[in-house]
Design goal:
Helix content: 55-70%
Largest sheet: none
Order of helices and strands: HHHH
Radius of gyration: 20 Å
Distance between the termini: 16 Å
Shape: elongated
C-alpha cells in the first residue's frame, strides 16, 4: 500500500468516480428491467396449476432477494460518491490510513484498509 496520496487530490476522484457512476446506472437499469419479476404472483387456479404457481412464487422470491442485494450495492456506491465529494474517499474509517489502490480497484466501496478489515 502507498501512503503517498493527497487526500484532497483529484487523482482518487478521477480514477473511481466514472466507474462508480457507471455501476450505479447499470444497477438501476437492471432494477427497472426486473421489476415485473418481483410482482406478487396472482392466484389463478383456472389457468395456472399449483406447481406452476409454486415455481412462479420461487422465481419471485429469488428476484426479490436479488433486488435486496442490488439495493445494498446501490447504497454502498452512493456512499462512495458521497465520500468522494467530501474528500474522504480512499481513507480507512477506523485508522485513517490510505486503503490502497489495489483494494479500491477491486471494490471502490471499501471503507476499511486491509488490516482493519480483518
Amino acid at each position: 500500500m502507498t501512503n503517498e496520496v493527497d487526500p484532497h487530490s483529484d487523482e482518487l476522484k478521477s480514477r473511481y468516480l466514472a466507474g462508480i457512476e457507471d455501476d450505479l446506472r447499470a444497477l438501476r437499469a437492471s432494477s427497472a428491467e426486473t421489476a415485473g419479476d418481483r410482482r406478487p404472483v396472482e392466484l389463478d387456479q383456472q389457468s395456472v396449476g399449483r406447481l406452476s404457481r409454486m415455481d412462479a412464487m420461487q422465481q419471485q422470491a429469488m428476484a426479490s432477494a436479488q433486488e435486496t442485494r442490488r439495493n445494498g450495492r446501490i447504497r454502498a456506491l452512493e456512499a462512495a460518491i458521497h465520500r468522494i465529494e467530501a474528500e474522504e474517499f480512499g481513507w480507512c474509517i477506523d485508522c485513517g490510513a490510505f486503503i490502497g489502490f489495489r483494494r479500491l480497484d477491486v471494490d471502490p466501496t471499501a471503507i476499511r484498509c486491509r488490516d482493519c478489515a480483518t
